[in-house]
Amino acid sequence: MEKLLGEFSVGLFFWQSIIFIALLILLRKFAWKPILEMVNEREGKISESLELAEKTKAEMKELQAQNESLLKEARAERDAIVKDAKETATKMVEDAKSAAKSEAEKVLVVARQSIEAEKAAAIAELKTQVASFSLEIAEKVVRGELSSDDKQKALADKLAGDINLN
């Protein structure tokens, strides 16, 4: 160290300064410009990449918002379809019930009419049979009563008397 500090030479300092300045000029002309251009170019690419990343991020947020809205719309549409299907099913069940009820009522009306017709026919037949039995009984009673000539004559007189009174 003593040797370095002890010997100062103006000529050596001058030549070292000239070489240093020449080296600075050469570096500035040939190295600094290309290095600065590369650094600036790299800085530009980095800023472009950052801008592209920001744009991509914004687009992703927009796409995510669109996806959310599409999901909401799809859910709403699904709910509407399910609601319509339930309403349609309920309506179909109600229609089937009312159709079955009206058909049952028609069957009941037809059955009641059939029962009434059969009842009327049975009553008419019963009346006919009762009348037939009554005639047979009356015929037997009248034959028994009119078996003798005296009884026939008395009945004829009685009937003639009733006709005159009326």
Written overview of the protein:
There is one protein chain. The model has no long low-confidence stretch (mean pLDDT 87). With 166 residues, this protein is mostly helical. The protein has 3 helices and no strands. It has a domain at 14-125.
Short synopsis of the structure:
The protein has a domain at 14-125. Helices cover 95% and strands 0% of the residues.
Throw out a few tags for this protein.
single chain, mainly alpha, 3 helices, 0% strand
Number of continuous helical runs: 3
Average of per-residue pLDDT values? 87
Terminal residue distance: 183 Å
Q: In which range does the helix fraction lie?
A: over 70%
Global geometry? rod-shaped
Classify the secondary structure makeup into a structural class: mainly alpha
Q: What's the number of extended β-strand segments?
A: 0
Element-by-element helix/strand order: HHH
Largest sheet: none
Report the radius of gyration as a whole number of Å. Answer: 66 Å
- Uncertain ranges: none
Give the percentage of residues in beta strands.
Answer: under 5%
